[in-house]
Amino acid sequence: PTLSSAKVQASVLNKPAAASLHENIIYSGRRLIRSGFAYANWGSEREKRERLEAQREKQKDLIFQLKTQLDDLERFAYQEGSYDSLPQSVVMERQKVIIDELIKKLDVNLNEDIGNLSPEELRQRVDAAIAQIVNPARVKEQLVEQLKTQIRDLEMFINFIQDEVGNPLLSDGRSQQPRAAGTNTRSPGAKKKVDPEQAQKMRETGLQLIQKALAVLQIFAASQFGCATGHVPQSMWPQDPCGQDYGPLLQRLEAAVEKVRVLGSHRHPSVEHVVNYTSSSTLGARDELTTSVRKELAFALKDLLAHGLFSPSQTMSVVLAPISCLLPHRPVAQTMHPWELFVKYYHSKNGKAFVESPARQLSQSFGLHVGSGPVTVTPKQSLLWAIHTVLKEHGRYKRGPDSEFKALVCMALNEQRLVSWLNLLCKSGTLIHPHYHSWSYMAQTGFEGALRILGRISHLRFNLPVDLAVRQLKNIKDAF
Questions:
Q1: What are the start and end residues of each CATH 1.20.58.900 domain in the chain?
Q2: Which of 145, 243, 354, 425 is deepest in the core (most CB within 10 A)?
Q3: Which residue stretches, if any, does this entry annotate as coiled coil (predicted)?
């Protein structure tokens, strides 16, 4: 009816008006068709989402049922004896109990950041929490052992006093000579003889009081002043203001590094910057690069590492330990060679057990790697092996720490690990804090400036002689 009425109206109206009406009708029809398709598409999208949600819920239910059935199957097999290990659910439940108890004891909260932390960061947090509990206990244990040692020394001292020849008051009077020869009578002013039993009781009581007083004074001094044996506050060490300036040492190191860089680059101006030394060539003072590394770079690095380095005193008298804080004199700090710090690092990391393990020995002897996968030697492993090699090669010939330190520097340059090895030592807080003064270059800067300077030659490849200090001795031994 609408179309017929439109035709009638079109016949009555003029042609332009009829054409416009026809276009409006077509446009309205198209809009109606589009809205119908859109409604149909919207309904299909909603149904599709609903089907996906329902499918996900079914999958979750199915996964939960499968887990439950698997747990029931493991429990049944374990109860029947056909499954040796505990069910996985029981193991996880017990592990969760252990982990929760450890977290509670260590007072560490890992639930908030556990998703954002890497395994190494989690391990570091756990180690730090354990150290907060273990370190004070170790310090207390060492303090107790020191107190026991000092008390035993005091007891031995008191026993020594008791065993000496007694007081003249305890003598039988034979030691007293008559004042006048030929007279058998005592002078009126002679001392009256003391009862030996009463004198012995007084002596024992006095010694016990002295022993108790010394023990109490010792414990009080160790707990309040920190003056136990071998432990003296670093503030008591003499600090020379002139010796605290590390600027000249840093300049010496920079000059030595620059000289080594120039010599290493000019010797072989190739892309790889290889500096070769054959075993048949004569090595010594005539080789400019070797001399520069061993006599300039090594000594400059040694002096900078030795800035503020000291060895804690272990020889304080056990008798003077309780009152060492009250003494007017200042103890003198014992100097320490940087090579000894590397040796301490080697022992603290159980380097001997690591290097002398059968697997490591076979790997080094036959060029095989331990474990599966590609061969990856960490800087820590290479440093422990290098220290062990230097100790083994130079220790048998009784070489000094300077020779051993120069050998270690040469090995580090050969392996392009000088910066990484020094960085390992600088990051070892258990070694740095007890052995460096607060004003030292290591404590002030963390050795970062020196590491940046040494990084200028890290791209060079060296083949420096490591056994130069013991080569002649080895040749003499081989000759005989």
A1: 239-479
A2: 425
A3: none
What would the DSSP string read from start to end of 241-259? Answer: GGGG--HHHHHHHHHHHHH
pLDDT digits (tens, 9 = 90+) for 45-85: 888 888 888 889 988 888 988 888 888 888 888 888 777 77
* pLDDT for res 22: 59
Q: How many residues does the chain have?
A: 480
> Structure pTM?
0.47
Q: Taking the alpha carbons of 103, 106, 107, 110 in that order, is the dihedral positive or negative?
A: negative
Higher local confidence (pLDDT), 245 or 253:
253
Handedness of CA 244, 248, 420, 401 (dihedral sign): negative
According to DSSP, the residues that pair with 335 across neighbouring strands are 310
For residue 238, the SS3 value is: coil
For residues 426 and 432, is the Cβ–Cβ distance under 8 A? yes
Query: CATH topology for 239-479?
Result: Methane Monooxygenase Hydroxylase; Chain G, domain 1 (1.20.58)
Distance, in Å, from the CA atom of 407 to the CA atom of 386, rounded to the nearest integer, reads: 9
Binning the chain into helix, strand and coil, the percentages to the nearest 5 are: 65, 0, 30
CA-to-CA distance for 68 and 60, rounded, in angstroms?
Answer: 12
Q: Please state the φ and ψ torsions of residue 436, each to the nearest 5 degrees.
A: -125, 140
d(CA 273, CA 463): 11
Residue 234 pLDDT > 50, yes or no? no
Radius of gyration of the chain (CA): 43
- Which of 21-35, 43-57, 161-175, 386-400 is predicted least confidently? 161-175
The DSSP string of 277-336 is: --TTS--STT-HHHHIIIIIIHHHHHHHHTTTBEE------TTTGGGGGG-SS-PPPEE-
Minimum mean pLDDT among 61-70, 168-177, 300-309, 366-375: which range?
Answer: 168-177
CA distances to 148, 206, 238, 287, 480 from 213, in Å: 15, 11, 32, 67, 65
Q: Using the predicted structure, report yes or no on whether residue 184 has a pLDDT greater than 60.
A: no
173 or 402, which is more confident?
402
Tokens linked to 449: 């400036």
